[in-house]
Amino acid sequence: MSGIPHSKAKAFSSTLSKALSGDYSCSKVDKLEHISRKLKGWAQFYSHTHFTAKVYNKIDRIVFWKFAKWLARKYRCSIKSLMMTWIRRPTPRKAKTWVVYGKSNNGIVCGATLFRLVSSPKMPFRPRLPIYQ
Known about the structure:
Blueprint: H1 6-19, H2 28-45, H3 53-75, H4 79-86, E1 87-88, E2 97-103, E3 109-113
Antiparallel strand pairs: 1-2, 2-3
């Protein structure tokens, strides 16, 4: 049984923290899509590992609050007022998360939802034996 290595999880969370610690000129939609792409890729890479819930939960918390602080700093307002505006359920049976709407850096009006690692699908691991000919 294998899990996610602690060093890899720590390095990934620090990468996400660095991505959310500056560049306030970027639009909120583009920033959220960039972070969600990184989270989806990481979840895809570790989809066949065991014991992922605690690591995923910790990274989700870090990203959630770092994004809240980034938005508060960008718009110079309180996190509470932002949460009342932008925390919603993306679909009726999903958990609440950041759902933002606005213009992207290209000028296109669109929306984005923060991807949650905890809700990512887990795949069974099937080891294969090498085939010799």
